[in-house]
Every structure is written in structure tokens, then in C-alpha cells.
Amino acid sequence: MASSGNSQDGMKRSLGLFDATMLVAGSMIGSGIFIVAADMSRLTGSAGWMLSLWIITGIITVMAALSYGELAGMMPKAGGQFVYIQRAWGNTVAFLYGWTVFTVIQTGVIAAVAVAFAKFSGIFFPAISVDNILFTIGALKISSAQIYAILSICFLTFVNSRGVQNGKAIQSVFTSAKLLALAMLIIAGIWLSMNAPWMQQNFSNPWEAVSWSKVDGTWIKEQVSGIALLLVLGTAIIGSLFSSDAWNNVTFIAGEIRDPRKNIPRSLLLGTAIVTILYTLVNVAYLGLLPLHGSPEATDVIGQGIQFAGSGTDRVGTAAASRIFGDSSVYLMAALIMISTFGCNNGLIMAGARVFYAMSKENLFFKKAGTLNKFEVPGYALVIQAIWASVLCLSGSYGDLLDYTTFASLLFYVITIGGIFILRKREPDAERPYKVLAYPLLPILYIVTALLICGILLITKPQNTWSGLAIVFLGLPVYYFLKNRK
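Below the sequence we write its predicted C-alpha cells.
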């Protein structure tokens, strides 16, 4: 395959290593890093365990990225992960992956990120609010925040439909801005924490796990250890995993990356490593600026701590920023989250449509989704994606869907990485410009770790995980309907 010009898919290869790395990092960094630390700290009740979960998340994310590098080098085509699964496992499993990406993983995250963008926009424009109900359709209440979220999806879809260069420009600017802002937050936070007592206090007994849970509307806490601690950690890590997800989106857009056999593996490693380091340091800054332990009844940021930041709204980033910037922190953090979520959604929208384009090429999606518009991008696939993401915005179900996405994503990461072993055996002489480091140990370690987390979630969050599995397997009758129709 040529390293420049047009790919075999007919797409123009115009994205370099920097652009691909910005897509990896930009798609990963949304609003999660500013929010999920609260729930993770309530579950673990321990600075040591909470920080360890972020480090573990970073390690397994980098392990997965290194594993995907081998597959990306072998198959530098639009659709990425869908193509890898299809080659290793066949059409049925590949369709179930594409189906889940369309129904939940990609569109559900796009909807949730868009609503987060709208909520924080409401800090500057109070008319944009989930409480500002514009009209009602039966039991469905449509708020100004939902409409604003949909408009942001439509805008980014339009921009990306006008050519990959537009999406590239937005991604580069917004990702660079949020990386710089995160670095400034880290530097300022760690500097100021040197004169505060919280770091020493938080790490005075770093491994004592006292977990908070809500029972019948009342907060209770209990010390956990042994198997109970393992279950708590396996549940809490969902927050950091969700915040670190979407790193694989760069594989979707492989048809538009120059020298993809080299640049995709490199961008996966660079992007995941950069975000892992930043996420870990952000949490160090949180622990230096705020006490970990707090009370749900407290009214100030010190009393609430990280556990109950923002009076239970989990706005840890805003609470930490208030220790640096004072009263203006609400607006500064809102602006940062707006930049972060807008850039994140641009990457998700740009990349996601390429999966549906690749599915259509295999007669596994709407036929028109497999066509390119005059700007050499899959315009029809972008529109279909925007429509379904907008429906999810209106349904209000995106919050529940997010609980399913991380579980479903982990399963398909396991399946994809398992494909390395199948292809090594079936196609030993296939061209592999990059081979996964420490094979077979590294991919086996990822698979075992991911399956352990999935097993824990089946025990601790059965409703969400089984619902996630149900969404995946609902794709089976759809697949056989399409197959019989063909």
C-alpha cells in the first residue's frame, strides 16, 4: 500500500504522525479526568489505591496500544479494529463489534460528551441548562442543554464532512490547548501543594481502604480488605478506564494516515503514554490540593474533599482549581472542560464514521455509508452517526449507556488482541512491519487483566454488564437478517 497519495479505500492520505498522535490523545481526554476521581476515591477510600488504579490503567492501556500496533501495521485500512476482528475472527464477530460501536460505544460516548459540553457551556450561558425544558413530547422532556448538545454534534459533523483537513485542524488546535492546560494545572497544583498539608495527610495511611456506598439514600462507609477489596478495585477502575478509552480511534482512520504501517503504531504508543503521564500527575495534583476524605454534609471544598467534591456533583477538577485560582475557578475549569469535550467529540466523530464506512464495504451496514463525498470523506456515514447520537442525546439514556460501553469495549479489546495469536498461527508469513513487544507475554497479560476486570464487573455491576452483553448479542439477529437478505 502506498504511503502517500490515496489509499486503496480511495481516501486521501493527508495525516502525519503528529496528527495521528493528536487524535489518540484528543479522543482520550474528555471530561472524565475532571470528574471520576470522586467516585474512585469513595470506592477505594485510599490515596494509594486510587493512584495505583490510574497507574494500572495507564499500563494496561499502553499494553493494548502496543498490541494493536502489530495489527495496525499488518492492516493499515479504514475501519481499523473492525478490519482486525474480521480478518482474525470472521464476519459475525466483526459485525457484532461494529453493531456495538454504532449502537453504544461510539454514538453513546459522542452523546454523553456533547451533553457534558452543553452543561459546562451553561456556566457561561445560563439559558443552556438541563433544567430549562423547552418542550415535552409525551413523557419525553427536551431541555435546552440537549438541543445545544445536538447542535454541537451537527456542527462538528458538518465540519468533518467538508474534508479531513478541517477535522485535523480542529483536533490539533483543541488537543494542543487541553494538553497545555492540563500541564499548567499539574504544575500549579503540585507547586501549591508543597505548602499544604494534604499530600502528607492523604498518604499517611495510603493502603487503608474505607469504602463509601449509598444505601436507601444514606451514605455508609466500611473498611474493606481481601476479596472485598479486590471487588472494590475492579469496580473503581471503570472510572479511569472510561477516562482513558477511545485511544483505538486512530485505527479507524488508517486510510487517511501517511505511512500508516509506521505512524499508527507510533501514534498509539505516544498518545497513550502522554495521556497516562498527564492523568497520573493530575491525580497527584488533586491529592496535594485537597484532602481525599470528605463528608457529604460539608459545604466547603476542604470539608467535601475529593470524595464529595462539588456537594456530590463529583466536580473534582473545579474543586482543585479553586485552591489555585479562587472564585474564578468555576469559569476557568468550565472553559477547560468545554475545550476538552469539544476536541474529544471532534476526534470521536471524525474516526467513528470510518468504521461504518468499512462495514458498508463488506455489505454489513447501509450501502450509502460506503461511499465518499466530493471531499473524499464518508459523508453519509457521518450523517447516520450524527442522527443516532442525537437520538441518544434526546433519550437521556446516554448515562446508562456509558456504564455498558467500558465493559463492552474491554471485551472487544480482548477479542482483538486475541486475534494476534490466531493470525500468528494462520498467517505466519504475513508482512508485520511492527511486532508486539515481549510476545506472547504482553498480550496474554493484557487479556488476563481485562478478563479479570470483566469478571469482577459481572459480580459487582450485574445489571449494567449483562445489559451491555445483551446489546452486543442483539446484533446477532440483525446480522443474520442482513446475511439472508444478501
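The chain is about 70% helix and 5% strand.
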